[in-house]
Design goal:
alpha/beta, Rossmann fold, 6-stranded mixed beta sheet, 16 strands, globular
Amino acid sequence: MPKHHAETTRKNPAGSIAEEALVARITKAREALGGRVVILCHHYQPDVIVQFADHVGDSLNLSRLAASRKEARYIVFCGVYFMAETADILSSPEQEVYMPDPDAGCPMADMARLEQVERCWGELTRLVGETIVPITYVNSSAEIKQFCGRRNGVVCTSSNAAKVMDWAFEQAPRLLFLPDQNLGRNTALAKGIPKEEIALWDRGKARLQGDPNRAKVILWDGFCPVHVRFTPEQVMRFRSRYPGIRIIVHPECTEEVVRLADGSGSTEYLIREVREAESGSVFAVGTELRLVKRLASTFPDRTVYPLDEEHSICVDMSRSTPGRLLAVLEGLLEGRAPGKIQVPAETAEWSRVALERMLAIS
């Protein structure tokens, strides 16, 4: 992770304190900070952190909140690094953004480095000229968002990827989708784009797999290590064990899993499907385990199974702990909080352009 963008500490000053005492101290610090602080949490955060959140949401909703909560001096973002970067980019100059652990990264975001993307772009524009628009999934670094902003591109989330693709095709006949090939492929296929018009950029070999002149969608070959662990065999196993079960998955899953599922969509979509289902409904959900377990406990009159309970924890989302959250909140009161996130001004300027295009489309 780009540690030079963050002020961080390796010490956990509250690590040895009992959980009850931690909760009491966090509550006291929040009360003392009052409206000066807002705590944003992604759905994949542990329950022990979610209990302190002012807002829990997916990337799109949290992006909107970061852009709208101008009254709070401090934004404490419990998630991973690219999310806090986005909050810093969209917040006002007077606001400051902090993370409980700035080393909480995203393997998918790390699969698209600026120098790799620039090399790809140079080759693609050599092949097809200025007939391509870049789209980056919000799960990417600020540098990649900046790259897209400079080149008339845009950011998307899993909630609005289809709308953003529509916008991109109004600008140019083809697009480059970064960094998640699965979200890009699943969205393109759902829009009716034929497979032969979808190409893949091999970042390791730095070359295109497919015909550049025929391709409407060029995918970067990144992926989410959690969501690619879901398999067609798991889907079929649940169908055989539980006739009538509804299987819903995140579009970061592979094409094969999405095709076999009954539905796919963002975390907000998955939550809505369970929330609006009739009592007695049975689901298997293919996404990060903590969200699935939270759905099961929130809606006890439905049965909600994780599609894979063994391999579906995001390790980086586990890095926010009560002790680290306490260190930030008490540090804010003392004027020396760890975990500050500050995106360089030039990077933030063009990243904001790409993000604001996304918010306008949404």
